[in-house]
Amino acid sequence: MRSAAARDFVQSYIEAWNEENPLLVADHLTADGVYHDVPNRREHHKKGLIELLLDEFSTDHNRYSLEGGIRSGQNCIAFQYSVQSASSETWYGAEFVDLEGERAVHIRDFYQPPVASQQAGSNAKKYVKSGLNDEAFERLKSRLANLMLNEQAYLNPDLTLPKLSKLVCCSVNHLSQVINSGFGMSFFDYLNQYRVEEAKRLLVAPDNCGQAIITVAYEVGFNSNSAFYTAFKKSCGRTPAQYRRDHQEL
């Protein structure tokens, strides 16, 4: 997908959320498209998403903003975003979009649920002495987004939390806070979500149809076949071979 088209899709999608218009949000899906609410382990087809958002928009009035750049492949888009609530609370998320034409057949939404304020309270205690204020938090979040989306730091199979903290130019504790509190997930889950999405792109790319799955696993940064299969199935509910076969049959 051309970068201009990807940018237009993301801009239109975020604007629809900010306009609190369920029909416009859902219109970014194909007729049989699915929105995956990953933290809550729920899937919504177009009609269900409209019903969900009608209820959500009646009570929640949030402001959504793109964070960092947009990464696009042949039929996929990845981007990170921030959300500011009416009470000035801020949380972050990342979306991975599989496209059919100009609309999404799958949208996978990873985010820190706003209802996790009680959980965030425990995180606040954990990080209360970290010295990382809101402005610094957002600055590190932007650096991290750039490293993931634009520089593809996740492709490095030897990437560790300390190594990534050096790339972000912050302490290990601060980076851990950004990932844990900002996305509600561990470092490895955060890293693997990008690796899996890149693997999905490679598995269905026309010029990679004969490439061995283990080769794809190593190309996207995994160190072992078993780790790749575990992370892939956790994310997609299917093995890499099943995912490739399903898309070849479309």
In short:
The protein is of the alpha+beta class and 250 residues long.
Write the layout of secondary structure elements.
Elements: H1 3-18, H2 22-26, E1 29-37, E2 42-45, H3 46-59, E3 63-72, E4 76-84, E5 90-100, E6 103-111, H4 117-127, H5 134-149, H6 161-168, H7 172-183, H8 187-204, H9 213-219, H10 225-236, H11 240-248
Parallel strand pairs: 1-6
Antiparallel strand pairs: 1-2, 3-4, 4-5, 5-6
Helix pairs in contact: 5-7, 6-7, 8-9, 8-10, 8-11
Structural write-up:
Helices cover 51% and strands 21% of the residues. The protein is an alpha+beta fold and 250 residues long. The chain has three domains: 3-111, Nuclear Transport Factor 2, Chain: A (Roll), CATH 3.10.450; 116-185, no CATH class; 191-245, Arc Repressor Mutant, subunit A (Orthogonal Bundle). Strand 1 (29-37) and strand 2 form a beta hairpin. Residues 115-129 have low confidence and may be disordered.
Text of the CATH class of the largest domain: Alpha Beta
Uncertain spans: 115-129
Please state the CA-atom Rg, rounded to the nearest Å.
18 Å
Number of strands: 6
Q: Looking at the structure, what is the overall shape?
A: globular
Question: How far from one another are the termini?
Answer: 19 Å
How many domains make up the 3D coordinates? 3
The helix-and-strand class reads alpha+beta
Task: Walk across the major sheet and give the strand order.
Answer: 2-1-6-5-4-3
Fill in the CATH topology of the largest domain. Nuclear Transport Factor 2, Chain: A
Count of alpha/pi helices:
11
